[in-house]
């Protein structure tokens, strides 16, 4: 009996643990509890499990079945039981994504879920979603390697931390990381890009001055050694478009052109286009210089202050929160307090052969002069992120130069005096809103205003005369730009721009009385379409667009196509083709060479579509770029034609000074740069050839050389950079600019009247200058950085003539040759502290 009991018990246990088909189990339950199950065969097919004990209640059996299967049971009145497949219970999964290198959170990282949905991280790198207990996701972000990971976290209070490795992309060798100096590079679209915060050193420069630096680029010159007279491929300064954070700047130089108005310690990116500029740039028939002070990535708090022998400046940036920041800068001349050797050289250069110095030359008895000169500029930037998709940026800038000169002399017991005031200023503001709708579509809207004023007030004792001249510009508008990424290779931009410019010119004279005030307003609309194709595998870059301008006043449409094409023949050699058509409605002219005391004699005017035509340009260039083994060779050939120019915009000081006619100039040439880098040493040699002619069909000499033609220009530099020490030595040589000589065979010396030969029949002497500069930077244990810089312009003290004209001397009644010279030996020292 004992052995029989354990045998039966063992057999029962074996029967109890035996797997049975699920369908048989529910049939047994139906018979035992008088219920009916409703189900689909697919839900229970091939399902087996150990049956529940018969002694259990109906609810207990249903709970047992639900626990051991993926089924759920709905009991309706203990009569009908519906069987469903159990829904997957979703868990809250969360995490933080950081950069592996600096452990900073990654904002807007994409997390691709198994159901093809996507979520993004916030500014703290945080994300969350409801998923299965085990979820496989793909994490990606531009600049980082994509990572596929299985997330099993179900506790939102213990979120997983994920580190992404930075993506190290091997750049094509065809593009140089450094051209001319560190911090200067060339982009796929043919433009030059300057990063001032990464700028190395160039001969004669100790600060990354945007307008001084761009003159080192082949094809860019300043005919009178001024940043207010930059000539790009034969064009005049006013034909260049200068933008500061989207604001057009009508004043570009302090000290009447010897210093850039753009604070060199503020800019983050400077883009320079000689040709092939984007269709979003209008109002220019020459180059485009776009300066941005907005950083590409968030930066920490910073403060710096510096001083040199001309001005002192301060810069500060403070993050108000994780999403907002404020940035200010201010710069002021120190000439109010001290006259340094640099200031004296600048003053002599600027005021030579002007009414300021003419007074002193004509008055040689008891002459006295009191002068007061100063300038300043200041900027403000406020940036605010709203959520993860929107950003608002406010930019403000103010620039001012002020000159006061009081001169007096006793002439034949009569006191003669003049009180001269010259003021030049430019204010600007830009409010922009940018929204990233998603990673494929972005919209940017900005509203801007730029106000410029040039005022001269002259008072003379003899004649009791007051002469007032004023030129004002008020420019405002709105830009709308959208960017659409269609594929990884193709993107498309479209936009609309409205621009209104009002320019007035006032002239007021007493004794005799004269008054003239002319104001013109022009409104233009522009529709922009632009597409870009970039295939790195096929080594093709192609960007094409068009700008359709409509001028309200003239009811005139102007279509401006632009094109940039690049093809990598191999990993070392690149071919580039650029072309553009552009137009411009405003320009600078000179009525009289003595206007505004002969210092800043150009005034802005608006086209009237008749005597002052709309200027139009067309340009094409072909470039070959070769780089291998730290050698670089860049050769570019170009052709450019600008029509609609006036003689008054070209600064003639010969027989064409008082002739008003229109025409064009045509220039073709070549630019070459050879560069070699050897460890810490960089050297380069550039050569530019320009053949530039005017065409004035209504003039007796219809074709002659352009005033801004420099037929040959050669530059060389040797730069050494190691650790915190930098030094650069360089020279610039150019053939003299054209000039017009008098025809002495037709001049009566007893009663001289100027008679000229053919315009620009000869040239000035060769221009040659050697410059040197050096900087040294060191840092203390508490993180404070110091930087000392020294530069010398024209270290050989060569007397370079930059202009020459002729006039009748009232003192000697003879023909007088008037020469203007470049800066002589000019030292400068700077010191800067950064926190």
Describe the SSE topology.
Blueprint: H1 2-16, E1 20-21, H2 22-33, E2 36-38, H3 41-44, E3 48-49, H4 58-68, E4 71-76, E5 80-85, E6 91-99, E7 110-112, E8 118-120, E9 126-131, E10 135-141, E11 144-151, E12 160-164, E13 184-186, E14 192-194, H5 210-213, E15 220-222, E16 230-232, E17 241-244, E18 247-248, E19 253-254, E20 259-260, E21 269-273, E22 288-292, E23 302-307, E24 311-319, E25 324-333, H6 341-351, H7 355-362, E26 368-386, E27 390-411, E28 414-438, E29 441-460, E30 465-485, E31 490-509, E32 514-535, E33 540-551, E34 556-568, E35 573-584, E36 586-589, E37 603-606, E38 615-628, E39 631-646, E40 662-678, E41 681-695, E42 703-705, E43 712-722, E44 725-734, E45 738-739, E46 762-763, E47 767-779, E48 785-793, E49 801-809, E50 814-821, E51 826-834
Parallel strand pairs: 2-5, 6-12, 17-22
Antiparallel strand pairs: 1-3, 4-5, 6-9, 7-8, 7-10, 10-11, 13-14, 14-21, 15-16, 17-18, 19-20, 21-22, 23-24, 23-51, 24-25, 25-26, 26-27, 27-28, 28-29, 29-30, 30-31, 31-32, 32-33, 33-34, 34-35, 35-38, 36-37, 38-39, 39-40, 40-41, 41-42, 41-43, 43-44, 44-47, 45-46, 47-48, 48-51, 49-50
């Amino acid at each position: 009996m004992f052995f029989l009991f354990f045998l039966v018990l063992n057999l029962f246990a074996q029967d109890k643990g035996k797997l049975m088909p699920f369908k048989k189990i529910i049939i047994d339950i139906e018979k035992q509890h008088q219920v009916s199950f409703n189900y689909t065969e697919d839900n229970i097919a091939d399902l087996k499990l150990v049956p529940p004990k018969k002694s259990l209640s109906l609810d207990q059996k249903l709970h047992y079945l639900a626990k051991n299967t993926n089924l759920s049971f709905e009991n309706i009145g203990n009569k009908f039981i519906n069987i469903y497949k159990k829904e997957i219970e979703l868990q809250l999964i969360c995490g933080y994504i950081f950069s592996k290198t600096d452990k900073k959170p990654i904002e807007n990282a994409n997390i691709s879920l198994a159901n093809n949905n996507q979520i993004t991280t916030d500014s703290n790198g945080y994300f969350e979603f409801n998923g299965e207990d085990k979820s496989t996701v793909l994490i990606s972000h531009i600049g980082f390697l994509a990572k596929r990971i299985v997330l099993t976290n179900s506790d939102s209070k213990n979120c997983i931390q994920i580190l992404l490795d930075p993506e190290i992309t091997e750049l094509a060798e065809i593009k140089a990381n450094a051209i001319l100096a560190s911090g200067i590079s060339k982009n796929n679209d043919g433009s030059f890009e300057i990063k001032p915060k990464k700028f190395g050193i160039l001969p004669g420069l100790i600060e990354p001055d945007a307008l001084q630096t761009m003159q080192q680029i082949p094809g860019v010159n300043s005919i009178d050694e001024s940043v207010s007279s930059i000539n790009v491929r034969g064009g005049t300064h006013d034909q260049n478009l200068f933008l500061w954070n989207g604001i057009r700047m009508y004043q570009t130089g302090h000290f009447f052109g010897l210093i850039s108005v753009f604070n060199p310690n503020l800019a983050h990116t400077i883009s320079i286009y000689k040709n092939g500029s984007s269709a979003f740039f209008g109002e220019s028939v020459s180059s485009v210089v776009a300066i941005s002070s907005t950083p590409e990535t968030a930066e920490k708090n910073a403060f710096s202050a510096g001083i040199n022998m001309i001005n002192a400046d301060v810069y500060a940036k403070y993050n108000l929160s994780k999403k907002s920041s404020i940035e200010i800068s201010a710069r002021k001349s120190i000439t109010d307090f001290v006259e340094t050797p640099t200031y004296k050289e600048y003053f002599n250069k600027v005021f030579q052969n002007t009414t300021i110095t003419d007074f002193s030359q004509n008055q040689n008895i008891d002459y006295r002069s009191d002068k007061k000169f100063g300038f300043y500029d200041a900027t403000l930037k406020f940036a605010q992120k709203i959520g993860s998709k929107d950003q608002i940026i406010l930019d403000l800038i103010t620039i001012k130069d002020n000159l006061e000169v009081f001169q007096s002399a006793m002439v034949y017991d009569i006191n003669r005096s003049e009180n001269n005031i010259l003021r030049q200023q430019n204010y600007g503001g830009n409010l922009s809103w940018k929204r990233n709708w998603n990673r494929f579509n972005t919209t940017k809207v900005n509203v801007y205003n730029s106000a410029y004023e040039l005022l001269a007030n002259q008072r003379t004792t003899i004649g009791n005369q007051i002469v007032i001249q004023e030129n004002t510009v008020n420019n405002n508008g709105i830009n709308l730009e959208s960017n659409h990424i269609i594929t990884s290779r193709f993107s498309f931009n479209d936009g609309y721009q409205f621009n209104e410019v009002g320019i007035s010119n006032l002239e007021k004279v007493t004794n005799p009385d004269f008054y003239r005030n002319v104001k013109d307003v022009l409104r233009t609309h522009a529709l922009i379409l632009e597409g870009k194709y970039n295939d790195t595998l096929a080594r093709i870059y192609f960007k094409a667009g068009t700008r359709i301008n409509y001028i309200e006043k003239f009811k005139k449409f102007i279509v401006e196509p632009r094109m940039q094409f690049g093809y990598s023949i191999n990993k070392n050699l690149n071919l580039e083709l650029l072309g553009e058509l552009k137009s411009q409605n405003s320009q600078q002219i000179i009525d009289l060479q003595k206007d505004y005391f002969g210092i800043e004699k150009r005034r802005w005017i608006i086209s009237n579509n008749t005597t002052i035509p709309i200027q139009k340009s067309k340009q094409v260039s072909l470039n070959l770029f070769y780089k291998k083994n730290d050698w670089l060779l860049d050769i570019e050939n170009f052709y450019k034609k600008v029509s609609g120019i006036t003689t008054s915009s070209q600064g003639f000081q010969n027989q064409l000074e008082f002739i008003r006619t229109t025409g064009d100039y045509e220039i073709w040439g070549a630019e070459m740069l050879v560069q070699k880098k050897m460890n810490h040493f960089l050297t380069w040699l550039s050569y530019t050839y320009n053949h530039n002619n005017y065409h004035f069909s209504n003039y007796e000499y219809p074709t002659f050389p352009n005033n801004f033609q420099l037929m040959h220009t050669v530059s060389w530099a040797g730069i050494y950079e190691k650790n915190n020490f930098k030094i650069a030595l360089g020279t610039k040589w150019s053939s003299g600019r054209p000039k017009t000589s008098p025809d002495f065979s037709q001049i009566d010396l007893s009663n001289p009247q100027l008679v000229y030969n053919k315009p620009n029949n000869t040239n000035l002497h060769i221009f040659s200058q050697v410059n040197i500069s050096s900087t040294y930077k060191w840092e203390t244990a508490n993180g404070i950085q110091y930087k000392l810089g020294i530069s010398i312009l024209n270290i050989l003290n060569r007397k370079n003539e930059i202009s020459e004209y002729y006039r009748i001397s009232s003192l000697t009644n003879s023909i007088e040759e008037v020469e203007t010279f470049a800066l002589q030996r000019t030292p400068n020292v700077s010191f800067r502290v950064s926190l």
